[in-house]
Amino acid sequence: MKRIEKIFLLILGLFLFKALLLAFYAGAEMSASSNPKDATMSDSNCLEEVRASLLQEKVALEAEKRELLAKKEELLLLEKRTQEQMAALKELIINAEAKLQELKDIQDERFKLLVKSYSEMRPSKAAQLLLNMDREMAVKILSQLNSSQVASILAAMPPDKAAAIVEAMAGLPARE
Questions:
Q1: Could you read off the pLDDT of 5-34 as tens digits, one per residue?
Q2: Quick one: pLDDT band at residue 35, thresholds 50, 70, 90?
Q3: Which pLDDT does position 45 carry in this prediction?
Q4: 3-state class of 11 per DSSP?
Q5: Could you give the C-alpha distances from 139 to 28, 82, 133, 144, in angstroms and in order?
Q6: How far apart, in Å, are the Cα atoms of 70 and each of 3, 6, 65, 91, 135?
Q7: Residues near 112 by Cβ (< 8 Å), separated by ≥ 6?
Q8: Could you tell me where the DSSP H helices lie in 33-171?
C-alpha cells in the first residue's frame, strides 16, 4: 500500500475511534438525560464533525499527493538532464583524448624527422647544434641515434660539454 493511503487509513481509524468514544459518552449522557431528542442532536453533531474532519484531512492528503507527484516529475526531469549532460561530457572527453593522441602522434613524427636530420648531419655540425640547445632535448635526440653516430658527435664536442651530456644520458643530476 502506498504511504499516503496508509496514513489516510490510520487517520480514518482514529477519527472513527473518536466518533465511537463520543457516541459512547453521548449515550451515557443520553441515558442520564431525559430528553431523547437532545441525544439524537448530539450524535448528529458528532458525526458531522467527524465527517468534516475526515473531508478536511482527505483534501490535505490529496494536496500533498499532488505536490509529491510534481516533485517526482521534477526529479525525473533533472535526472534525464543530468544523464544527457554526462553523455555529452563523455563524448567531449573522448574527442579531447583523440585530439591529444593526434597531437602526440604529430610530435612523435616531428621528433623522428629531427632525429633523422641529426643522423644525416656531419658530426661537427650536429655537435655544435646540440651544445646550443637544452640539455634534455640534446639527450633525447642523442638517445635515438645509433652508438657510432653518438660517439662521433660527442668526439666533436669539447670534453667538458661531452662529459656533461654523457652524465645526463646516464641519468645523473647536472653539475652546477
A1: 777 777 877 777 777 777 777 665 555 555
A2: low
A3: 82
A4: helix
A5: 108, 49, 10, 9
A6: 16, 20, 9, 32, 67
A7: 144
A8: 36-120, 123-131, 135-144, 147-155, 159-169
